[in-house]
Amino acid sequence: MVACAPSEQELYDAGIIELRKGEFKTAIENFDRILEENPNHFDALNARGVAYFELQKWDDAIVNFKAAMKQDSVSYKPYLNLGNAYLEKEEFKDAVVNYNMASALDLNQTDIYYNRGLALLGMEEYEDALLDFDNALRVDPNQALVHFNRGKALVGNNDPLEAINALHRSVSLDDTNGAAFYLLGITEMSALNKVDEGCAHLQQALQLGYNEAQEWIDEFCSSDS
């Protein structure tokens, strides 16, 4: 007796299970089997792109997301995923273009705010980045990374006082982010001349493994800071 071959849906469901388990190569094998028979399968193309993304194979992910986009030009998903892949490649303009498309197709996708803010931050478009970070915080005000990157944008926008407030909020929500303590420390010292507070935050950054703090500590902080 010859067993029946699995259907497209069965292969897709199996691939999604493997994707969620972190078995990305096995997931790709399932999606490959679908696409060998049906190269226009939108969900398999998009999901295979996600699996390649998780493997940090950004270019392979981009190929799949673009192929998915051709099959369904009104779904926000491949645009959002494509934006994320370009963000990882630090191709910020392409990331913003795709985030804008995703947002236009589905205004309820609030995750777009933070990721687009990161891309705008990478482009040094600080005011636009701040708008997106503010929108992200309206959805959930307790996002430590959003406060951290908002602080970075405020520093870039020459607003150190608000940056310090944002960074204090970030470290109060997550006391394991060495980069946030570092930026807080150097901003306090350079903008407000708060050496004791700044040195304390730099020491915290160093304890958390953020070694860039050592140079500032050596130059500006006494040995017993």
Characterise the protein shown here.
With 225 residues, the chain is mostly helical. Helix content is 76%, strand content 0%. The chain has 13 helices and no strands. Helix 1 (8-21) runs parallel beside helix 3 (42-54), helix 7 (111-122) runs antiparallel to helix 8 and helix 7 runs parallel beside helix 9 (144-156). The longest helix has 15 residues, at 178-192. The mean pLDDT is 95. This is Tetratricopeptide repeat protein. TPR repeats lie at residues 8-41, 76-109, 110-143. InterPro entries: TPR-like_helical_dom_sf, TPR_rpt, Ycf3. Keywords: Repeat, TPR repeat.
Shape: elongated
Q: Whole-number radius of gyration?
A: 22 Å
Count up the helices.
13
Q: What is the H-and-E element order?
A: HHHHHHHHHHHHH
Distance between the termini: 78 Å
**Structural class computed from helices and strand pairing:** mainly alpha
Portion of residues in beta strands equals under 5%
Residue runs with pLDDT of under 50 for 5 or more positions: none
Mean pLDDT: 95
| Number of beta strands | 0
**What about the largest sheet?**
none
Overall helicity: over 70%
